[in-house]
Amino acid sequence: MKPGPLIRFRIDFTENSNLGPGKIVLLEEIKRCGSLSEAARRIGLSYRRAWLLLNSLNNSFDVPATVNNAGGRGGGGAEITPFGLLLIERYREVERKLNDVAGKSLEEISSRVNRKAVTSARRVPVAKKRRLGA
Q1: Distances (CA, A) of 24 to 18, 71, 109, 110, 129
Q2: Which residue has the higher pLDDT, 133 or 115?
Q3: Res. 100: pLDDT tops 90
Q4: Three-state SS sequence of 45-103
Q5: Average pLDDT over the chain, rounded to whole?
């Protein structure tokens, strides 16, 4: 990944219809492995959370992003539809453009980022309050 700011965004088409980085990563992983449960494992989601994200996505548009195959012995799995591929492609395209714009617009600020800064927040103890009269 190139240095500089990274834009993470969500697109709200309507109040209950949105597309963000989590759903896109899930679609990409389903595309790679052909299974919702395997995709969920690979990206560290519970099956239930992954199913809820996918269900929300499939109900957000008039065509689904994925189709499921019947489970059972030798069956099961999920497939990305052409519309699902379009969602991935367009989201990543917008992401690239936003990051390019951000990189150019924030160049003079990015050049001042302390690259040696500690990445985790260090806990600073809060001073104990003195009791009155002590």
Answers
A1: 11, 24, 29, 27, 48
A2: 115
A3: yes
A4: CCHHHHHHHHHHHHHHCCCCCEEECCCCCCCCCEEECHHHHHHHHHHHHHHHHHHHHHH
A5: 86
Domain ranges of the chain: 19-106
Q: Which two tokens stand for residue 13?
A: 């088409």
Question: Residue 35: pLDDT above 90?
Answer: yes
Whether the pLDDT of residue 71 is over 90: the answer is: no
Fold of 19-106: Arc Repressor Mutant, subunit A (1.10.10)
The answer to whether the beta carbons of residues 32 and 59 sit under 8 Å apart is no
**Which pLDDT does position 112 carry in this prediction?**
87
Q: Which residues, 6+ apart, have CB-to-CB distance to 114 below 8 Å?
A: none
Using CA atoms, how far apart are residues 27 and 67, in angstroms rounded to an integer? 11
Tokens 């799995």 map to which residue? 77
